[in-house]
Design brief:
The protein is an alpha+beta fold and 64 residues long. 50% of the residues lie in helices and 12% in strands. It has three helices and two strands; from the N terminus they run αββαα. A two-stranded antiparallel ribbon has the order 1-2. A hairpin with a 2-residue loop joins strand 1 and strand 2.
């Protein structure tokens, strides 16, 4: 696993342009328009994004 997906990556994927800060793993939500994703949603999105990234390893290696 060359690239580890972070909570902030998952949040941006779930809620594009969300206004929030991730400080030491704690999400501080500042967005009044979008609802804050649950911890379970964030964890599931981290897993999904990591699997997507990992599945493209062959293409990245081939491109290099």
């Amino acid at each position: 696993m060359a690239n580890e997906i972070r909570k902030s990556d998952a949040i941006q994927s779930l809620r594009p342009n969300a206004q929030c800060i991730v400080d030491n793993g704690v999400v501080i939500w500042h967005d009044a328009v979008q609802t804050e994703p649950t911890q379970a949603e964030i964890e599931a999105e981290v897993i999904r994004l990591q699997a997507e990234y990992d599945s493209q390893e062959y293409a990245r290696n081939r491109k290099a």
